[in-house]
Design brief:
Elements lengths: L4 H33 L4 H4 L3 H26 L5 H4 L27 H13 L7 H10 L11 H17 L2 E4 L2 E4 L4 H26 L2
Antiparallel strand pairs: 1-2
Helix pairs in contact: 1-3, 1-8, 3-7, 3-8, 7-8
Length: 212
Amino acid sequence: MALEFSQNIKFLEKQINRLEKNLSRAKNLVNISEHLRNNPISKNSLDISDILRSATVFTHASLEDFLRAISEVFLPQSNEDTLNVVPLVGQKGRADKFLLGKLAQHRGKTVDCLIQESVVEYLLKTNYNNTIEITSLLQSFGINMLEIKTTFKDIGELMERRHQIVHRADKIDKNKNFHTNPISAKQVKKWIDAVDKFSVKVLAQCAILQMK
């Protein structure tokens, strides 16, 4: 069900402001790293590149937060096949198995309310590790991916590097000798910009969907 025009505008403004605040924190980390690098005392005593790695992880977290926020609106409106991945709220285990008695604790709720609560709980545990997962998610909402995919090269790099940082301490294996993968402020700024552009393109498609 499409939102009213005024609600649609508020939804878009809320998501823009939310992402801008998150990305500004990542940008601040980049700025701090550049300031320290230009300081002769700190650049000799600190591994400043770790600040950039933190900014990379935070940029990816901002992307995931944005996708969850979009999902919270569109997933409850999705078709049966899409909703089948969502477990009943309060239910552990597979989404496709629950006994009728589990509904007893939800007496008095509307179906829409129960779906919404289930989606919100489900999203608390979701993450997005590559552009294939992002594509699958957005397409399930009916979003046109043509323009959005133009950002995927940089988004993909961000997601791969975040995985390398979080799960491999950003170490790369060179002839059985592990070395820290170099990172630059220019790279991180590019990834932050990609997430920003991605969000603009996604929200443009969201606006179209909401007005249908």
